[in-house]
Design a protein that fits this description.
single chain, alpha/beta, Oxidized Rhodanese, domain 1, Rossmann fold, 2 domains, six-stranded mixed β-sheet, five-stranded parallel β-sheet
Length: 384
């Protein structure tokens, strides 16, 4: 299939072409190119062919995937004969990089992003950020915190919120903005660097070969990759004199993890707001976005016309997210849909899931584990 560049697309009149997003639902939820329509080519080929045939044949049809490889190699039998078909060079990531390339607008972009945190999104973003830091004692006097930036919307916003709370000077602490490059391709790394510069985040980048190290692992590569990345972050944060690393997990991650643990792991557990490291003495992990809703993060991103990485994994074009618990993006997407469905009948469902792990009554629990020791209700049943 012939390729068309982002610049060539920009020179076309919108009436001349139809733009088709071929990615899966998880990636599309993260963001689409404006005016694109969704046709998931992989989930149902026959349905996809029918939708393609229904497109206006007098227009050019331009397909894009995540990085441009899949649409470039699409089989010709997918398309009616005689039509003009193109693959968008660089895919969605290429489009995102093009949108962040204008350095003349970077200062303006930074000012708008910061101003929106202080005003328009203060209640939705800064207030719950500060509340989580206070409620769970995440920031303490004298801390040196490594803010871990993956390049996605969550970690980038977290960095800006840390800068804002530090500006208030209610507690003396230091920040290091740390990016771990596990083997990104040059386009994804360039996007992280340009976004960091545009938002005024002075990042320190460390390189590793983690992607290559797990390339041949067949069983749970995402789980192993995430564990290795976590260890790398701890190690380098400690070298920088930090006592804490901050990760960008938010409220929705927490409630999805609770529900997924029950449905897929047969256990009740949660994603904790902070943890002591078991392998790096004196180090802690904190999650200051713990009370922030993902929809509010997306609203801030879209309001400021920001474009971030979804997943820079080089193993797959359709990886929505990598999770340390070993769950796949499809399972997490299923859980998101389940919560959304349940919310239609009960608007408090999300808060109830979140609070469920704060209100556990051990007198009504058959068994539980603490510090690796299993306790059963029968152990003390006859002594009561």
């Amino acid at each position: 299939m012939k390729e068309i560049t982002i610049k060539e697309l920009g020179r076309l009149n919108k009436d001349e072409y139809t733009l088709v997003d071929t990615r899966d639902e998880g990636l599309r939820e993260y963001g689409m190119i404006p005016d694109a329509i969704a046709i998931d080519i992989e989930s149902d080929v026959n349905e996809a062919k029918a939708k393609i045939s229904a497109l206006p044949k007098e227009k050019k049809v331009i397909f894009y995937c995540e990085v441009g490889r899949k649409t470039r190699d699409l089989a010709e039998e997918m398309f009616p004969q005689g039509w003009e078909y193109y693959s968008l060079e660089g895919g969605y990531i290429g489009y995102v990089r093009e949108m962040t390339a204008d350095e003349s607008k970077q200062k303006e972009k930074q000012q708008k992003a910061e101003e929106s945190i202080r005003k328009k999104f203060h209640k939705q973003l800064f207030t719950p950020f500060a509340k989580a830091c206070k409620r769970y004692n995440l920031i303490e006097e004298g801390d040196r915190i490594a803010v871990c930036i993956s390049g996605g919307k969550d970690s980038m916003l977290m960095a800006k919120l840390f800068q804002e709370i530090q500006r208030h000077r209610q507690c003396n602490f230091e920040l290091v903005f740390m990016v771990m490059d596990p083997g990104y391709n040059k386009e994804n790394r360039a996007l992280i660097e340009s976004n960091s510069k545009a938002l005024g985040i002075p990042v320190t980048i460390f390189e590793s070969n983690i992607f290559d190290a797990v390339d041949t692992i067949e069983k749970s590569p995402c789980y192993i990759c995430a564990r290795m990345r976590r260890g790398f972050l701890y190690s380098n944060a400690k070298k920088l004199g930090c006592n804490k690393i901050a990760l960008g997990h938010h409220y929705d991650d927490v409630i999805e993890t609770i529900l997924m643990g029950m449905l897929h792991g047969a256990q009740i557990q949660t994603m904790m707001p902070k943890l002591h490291s078991t392998n790096f003495e004196g180090m802690e992990l904190i999650r200051p976005l713990y009370l922030i809703r993902e929809s509010d993060i997306c609203a801030w991103r879209d309001y400021n016309d920001l474009h971030f990485l979804q997943c820079a994994c080089h193993f797959t074009d359709t990886c929505t997210t990598c999770h340390e618990d070993g769950t796949t993006s499809s399972k997490r997407l299923e859980t998101k849909k389940l919560i959304k469905m349940l919310k239609k009948d009960n608007p408090f469902i999300e808060a109830n899931i979140f609070k469920s792990v704060e209100n556990i009554n051990l007198n009504t629990v058959i068994a539980y584990k603490k510090d690796g020791v299993r306790h059963h209700f029968l152990d003390e049943y006859d002594s009561n």
